[in-house]
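#struct-pred

JT: dropping the chains for the assembly here, can someone run the whole complex?
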Amino acid sequence: MAQKTYAGVTVDVNEEGYFTNPSQWTKEIAAEIAKEEGIVLTDKHFAIMEFLRKKHNNGEALSIRSINHSGVIDVKTFYQLFPGAPLKKATKIAGIPKPSSCI
Amino acid sequence: MKKLVILGAGTGGTIMANKMRKELSRDEWAITIVDQDKTHYYQPGFLFIPFGFYKKADIVNPRQKFLPDGVTAIYQQIEHIDHENNKTILANGDFLDYDILIIATGSRTNPEETPGLKGELWYKNVFDFYTIEGAEALADFFKTWKGGKLVINVADNPIKCPVAPLEFTFYADAFFTKKGIRDKVDITYVTPMSGAFTKPKASKMLGNLLEAKKINLVTDFFLGEVDNDNKKILDFGGREVPFDCLITVPLHSGEPAVSNSGLGDEFGFVRANKNTLQSLVKENIFVIGDASNLPASKAGSVAHFQAEVLAKNINSFIANEPLHASFDGHSNCYIETGFGKCILIDFNYDTEPLPGTYPLPVIGPFSLLKETRINHFGKLVFKWIYWNVLLKGRKLPVTDYMSMTGKIKDRVIFSTKQ
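RK: done, full complex below.
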């Protein structure tokens, strides 16, 4: 298993850089991963990442569509916050596994 | 008299009605099944209608025909599930008490959820093929279409039969080739996934097949809206794909009665244990098939494999024993690739589709993850098996749990072309 150091903390990641142990995540670490992705985190970023982490902890599947049900932001805003591939970027910065479609 | 109520008389509900009528004593248990209408569609057949291979009459039967004696059928819409009081409320105001409830209400398409999808081009240049109305409208459209940009788009997952949009795409290639206008039809497959399919080996194989058939692939595209004026689809980030004919697989949702009863997730799919199929909200409620939020395919084969597990667990529940039987996510599906050929895939929660033969090693007769004519034959014969064996809850000569028999883990069988 690979490891990476963010904000002075060494964390376990997979070959694509996604956390394999979400409990190692902190907000300081998030800010550093975001920097790699060219994103400066705001309260809105943290609010939606909180939603994603909570869903992940409950064992629920993450999807773009579920963002509209988050009560935090809508999907368009999600794209503005994490441009390009928002769900992939947001989960990486939020320290949870990359969502995989389960078909 | 105790009461088992089954909501939904589609694939999963019908199989369970047949199975449980055999398992449960007629003196002790009454079984009632509820559906909103009387017609059972062979849903895999929808795919064939736009290309004129099947007509509606080829894929319909009365639901009643597949229900056993000793099961009461009620044809009414379900309004609400009062799980606190073990009651189902129907649209006509009737109540159905139950001791055990099986939810088998399936999954439906929701084109209304995407802005512009059900706009002025709906059934003129924009079609679905997951409903009989859409499939028939598209069949009419294809009869006279002279060609242009054909776009096949999956709005977002989960969807029923996740391979159907790809099959449709392969069929369209074959259909327009035979018509002699393939050079006038520009085909693009637009998907929210990062490749043609999810799991790596199947995605690579199917991706190569798209390329060989000169079909464009657009990935990571989550449908945001349809621009009817300019005939374009846009994703939430503003990426555009123009079309002359759009084949949409709209967003899917569960049964409204599940949503309004607090038993489902935000899309109305029943929250359930992925192994025991028991509701996470109430212990005397179980789920089968597309209606669940399980991380398994929404497909008839899955409902069939779940049925055995569910029957065992319901028996355990009645006997007040722990639920021993565990569903492994087993799914298998035929993927039609056109020109009389077909691929077969077999997988579960933990094992991706692998090459090999099925169900027996070497002799098969079906080949996994490979195009063959005999697979296509298997798909055609399956319609008969569906009506005559599967719905009746009879055993098929394959295992309910996924088996590694005949599968090959590491052989490289694909071209390395990227």
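JT: nice. DSSP finds seven helices and 24 strands in chain B. Chain B touches chain A at residues 156-158, 162-163, 192-193, 197-198, 220, 222, 224, 236-238, 251, 265-267, 293, 295-297 (CB under 8 Å).
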